[in-house]
Every structure is written in structure tokens, then in C-alpha cells.
Amino acid sequence: MTDTKHNLSFDDWDEANFPRPAETEFDRVVERALSRRNFLGSVLAFGSGAAVMGTGLLKGSTALAEGHAMAKSRFPFKPIGIATDHEVHVPEGYTAKVLIRWGDPLFSEADGYDVAEGGPAAMSDKVFGENTDGMELFSYQGHEIIAVNSEYTNNDVNLPAAQEGVPANADDVLKLQQLQGVTVMEVAPGADGYEVVKDSPFNRRIHHNTPMTIAGPAAGHDLMKTEADPTGTASLGTMNNCGSGRTPWGTYLTCEENFNGYFGSTDADAPRPEGYDRYGIGADGWGYDYHKHDARFDYSKNPNEPHRVGWVVEIDPTDASSTPVKHTGLGRFKHENAACALAPDGRVVVYMGDDERGEFMYKFVSNGTYAPGGSTEGLLDDGTLFAASFNDDGTGEWLPLTPESTGMASLAEVLIFARIGATTVGATTMDRPEWIAVNPHAIEAYCCLTNNSKRGGSAGEVNAPNPRESNNYGQIVRWRPHDDDHASNTFDWDLYVMAGNPDVYPNNPYGGSENVTAGNMFNSPDGMMFDSNGLLWIQTDGDDSNEEDFAGMGNNQMLVGDPMTGEIARFLTGPKGCEVTGLCWSADRRTMFVGIQHPGGSWPDGSGLPRSAIIQVTRDDGALIG
Ligand code: FEO
Ligand code: CA
Ligand code: CA
């Protein structure tokens, strides 16, 4: 995404403002990697030349032809070409239409969105939030309830009267605060597809001022206490809600990503406590200017308030009066999503990525076990947080983050400063870990490493799972825990795909792995979700210029991959300017809901104002769609 004030993405802005000191150099790994086979059986095939670190991972694969026989495609559609227009496209035999747009009312007391003026601040918590992101659908007593994130706001269009979208007063700030966070809404089939059930008792907006409970080992620690909350156990708001997750017991997980940008200081010389640099907290903030109108976001007055954000938050979508819970056991970083799995013994495993260049992949393993209908108390807090270390021989291990392993004074501090702990134990720096998805049909998981075009120093060195020096395209790493146990401390890994441009870079690592062709090119994989058939849906948030390195890739898109064969096909293209992010299915799996964030042009309604929206996709023959 881009910001109108800085014209920089969150990660570019952080990199410019808070560069980290160089990490330890990782050993370069070409020689041993050359002989390693990936899960599909093919051999890593590096190009020639010392500078060429990339893999043609699946290239030259005999396994695709032999062991896995590229049998008949499991995709029941004809893949579509790229698009460069301002529309959504799906394959022949499928139809896409809008479910809800940013600003559409969830309650009858709110009016429809006013394109010229924006909506009134007083009603901004009664409408669907802006910039839709991760989402999940829950079936509950015959109702279908979608919980969905609203990641950030485009301030200039929300505050048309404010100079360059910079809030001028507390009312402007309130409006921005209430248009972000989470929407919980009931949906039901209508005359022409699904509709939002206005005024449903499940409908709810959770935003930057909603009361939260802080749970787990960091709750009550001195670093979590503020003047307004001397207990350190009750905060306000969840923010920059990016990807999602769902627990085995049917609750929603929303993940706080670029939270740092909301904080600033009215006193430029105010002390910046430990951890501010690593988490990117500075006096100017990212352009929201909350700190000038709401003292909670002014760190010269509330230096601990930033410690209360950057967590995974659990929401009960079936109870609109429930208080969301921040689970400090899952660590504090720029959370992308939270993918849950169960170990054979019932322990809960949560895989998580920290989306910034040179940051890490994490997992949490509970101490207690989950039993359907049993208590879930402590299952997301009492346990161990680990960071991933990848070896160049195709194995890896999860390194525990504890006071002993990190030398930090307490478990609370380990969790509040998880990034620093993960660096201390020597976890592997990654190319911006975005969504993680757990295969429901095999004991394995996948993580999108979206891109890393500014390699070096704080952005991490080249290493085995991040093998290309200038990585404009991204890759998806996959791992299989040893003993078929997601709680295992060790795993095998490979790259499922390396995105690239085989037209621009033929026979070159930047051309991508063998399962990337002129017909399915994409860059910057980001959102990712398995369907019930074990197919892997991949959404992109990349460069849609369709020029130079990105020629032939078109607009951002959604593809589907077959983990068994490596096959990848393009299913959907979004309107120019957008990112495709967020995916869930109706209870009967005949409707797929897809998020379109920050579209350009005038999509979807030609009103002159592009509006993020959730679309619904169905098959014209009414068959299952995932
Ligand atoms: Fe909100 Fe890393 O995407
Ligand atoms: Ca994302
Ligand atoms: Ca992204």
C-alpha cells in the first residue's frame, strides 16, 4: 500500500526512518544447496556466475514429469490472462459481484457513503471499515458471520477538508480511528447472492478505541502500564489489522501489523525508550497525527502505550458484547496473520510472520491441549514462542525465545521485544514474511515471502530460503515438521515457488521456478489460504505497472496452486491499483469472498471514488468453489 503523505509503503518508510544495524553475515550456501532435493523431488539448479544466488528450484525437474506425473489438473477452470483495467475478472463460468464497500452501513441509523464529503465521524463506527484485509467466516446456530479487518485509511479521501489528509482536530482523528480495526457482520443469501444483514445482533465494529483485555505473560508488567491503566491489563483499540486466523474453537484472530505509525510525540526531544528503534516508533509518526489530538498516542506523555499494540487479538464473533483479548504469549511484532494447527497430542500451534525486511517467522506452541468443548483458557498464552532458523541443507529448527535463551530479564520482556529476542538467538532473517497457511490435507505449512528489493544491512542477507540478492518478485517457503507433528522443534523445508519473470529473465533465477510461466506470472505473493480440497490460493500485493521487470504480470491477482504438483494458475485479476487480500467461503462453499484493498480508478461503482470492497465469487452452475 502507499501513503499519500509520504508516498512510501509502510516497509519503505520504516526502512528509511529506522534502519537496523547490520545483522551477522549468513554463510552463503550455494554449494551444499546444489545437491539438495526439494519436496517435489527436483534438484536445485542454480544459474552460473558468483552473483547468481537464485534457484531454478523446480526447473529441470524430472520429478514433475516422473514421480508426480503432472496428472490431470485439479483446477476446474480455464486460467485467465492478465488484466490492466479497472475491473475484476474471473474465469468463464464464474461470476463476481460486490458484497459490501467501505462506508456501506451495517446499521440502519447510518446513511450510505457520501462520496463528496466522506461519512460523518459520528457514524464512522456504524459502517463497513476501509481497506478490507484478512477475514474468516463463522457458522453459528444457522447464522453466517464474517469477521474482517480494515487495515488502514486513505486520509485524504476520508478527510476531504483537511490539508493533504492530515487530521486537523480530534473529530478527524476519531473518524480515522473508527474506520479501521475489525468489522463483524452477518451475511445471508438474498435474491441475487449474499447480502449483509443490516442491524443483525452480531454486527459490530471494533476499532482504535474499543476496550481490550491484555492476557498472558506480559499482562500487568510495568512496561504495559499507563496512567489510564495502572494494571497493565486493559488497553484501548486494535490497529493496523492485517491478516487473520481462526482458532480450533471458532474465534477470530486479528493481527496488528504496522502499529508503529500511529504513535508520535508532541515533544521532539522526548526520550525514546528501548525498543522504539527496532519497532519503528518516532516523533513524527506515519501521517495519522493522532498524537497531536489524542494524548494516548503521544509517547512523550504515554511512553508505554506502543507496547500495548503489535499483538494478536482474539475476538468472539458470536457475541457482540464480548471484550477482545490481546494474547501476549504470541509475541509483539508486526504481525501479518496467525495460522493455527493442532499437534497430535492436542497442543495448539500458531504460525506467524513478521512483515518487515530482515525480520523473522515465529511459532507458538501451547503448554495445554485443546479438546472440543473443553476450556480454552491460556491456550494462546501459556506456552513457548519460537523463531525459525533455516539451514541450507533443507532442514531447520525452531529456536525457543525464553529469558535463558535471550538473556532478557523476564518472559514478559522477551514477548514485548520478541524481535530483539529472535535476533539474539540467531533466527534466520527473511524477505518480509506475510501470510502463513497450514495445509489441511498434509502436515505442512507455507509462508509468503513477499519481496525484498533493498537487500543488505537491516534488510537481511541472502540465505537459503531467501536466495536472490535483489528480490522484486518474492517466493513461498514450505516446511514439513518432523514426526508429522506441528509442535516438533525441527522440520524440513523447500521453496514451493519462486516468482519471477521468465520472459524478461529466461534461464535465470529472476525468471522464477519451473512452475512459473509466461501464462501465470505474478509478483509479491502476500495473502494465502488453503481451501477444503487442499488447494492453495495465493493473493498478490505487488508492482502492477506491467512494465520492465513486471511486464506481462498485469494487475494484482489471485492464483491457485496445487501443492502436490506445483501447478499454479491465475483465477482472478483485480482492478488496477488494488491489492487482493482476504479470502473466506460461505458455509456451503458455493460462494467465495475475496477482499479488494485500495483499488484505483473508480472501482467498483463508477462514483469517482475508488472504494475497497469484498466481492463474492460463484460458479454459474452453482457447484462448490473450494
Ligand atoms: Fe498488511 Fe504485510 O501486509
Ligand atoms: Ca498483507
Ligand atoms: Ca504486502
Largest sheet: 9 strands, antiparallel
C-alpha geometry: globular
Assembly state (oligomeric): single chain
Instruction: Please give the number of β-strands.
Output: 30
Return the structural class. mainly beta
The residue-averaged pLDDT reads 91
Distance between the termini: 28 Å
Question: Any descriptors?
Answer:
nine-stranded antiparallel sheet, 8% helix, binds MU-OXO-diiron, 626 residues, mainly beta, 8 helices, binds calcium ion, six-stranded mixed sheet
Structure description:
With 626 residues, the protein is mainly beta. The protein has a domain at 1-72 and 465-570. It is built from 8 helices and 30 strands. The strands form 6 sheets. A 9-stranded antiparallel beta sheet has the order 13-14-16-17-18-23-22-21-20. The radius of gyration is 23 Å and the shape is globular. The protein binds MU-OXO-diiron (FEO) and calcium ion (2 copies). Residues 242-243, 336, 434, 526, 541, 581 line the site of one calcium ion (CA).
What is this structure's SSE topology?
Elements (H helix, E strand, L loop, with lengths): L9 H8 L12 H5 L59 E8 L30 E9 L2 E8 L4 H4 L11 H9 L2 E10 L2 E4 L7 E3 L4 E5 L18 E3 L4 E6 L5 E5 L19 H4 L32 E4 L9 E3 L7 E8 L4 E8 L2 E3 L1 E9 L13 E8 L4 E7 L1 H4 L4 H6 L1 H8 L4 E2 L1 E6 L6 E5 L25 E7 L8 E9 L26 E6 L5 E5 L16 E5 L6 E6 L5 E7 L5 E7 L15 E7 L7
Parallel strand pairs: 7-12
Antiparallel strand pairs: 1-30, 2-3, 3-4, 4-5, 4-6, 7-8, 9-10, 10-11, 11-12, 13-14, 14-16, 15-19, 16-17, 17-18, 18-23, 20-21, 21-22, 22-23, 24-25, 25-26, 26-27, 28-29, 29-30
Bound molecules: MU-OXO-diiron and calcium ion (CA) (2 copies).
One calcium ion (CA) binds next to loops.
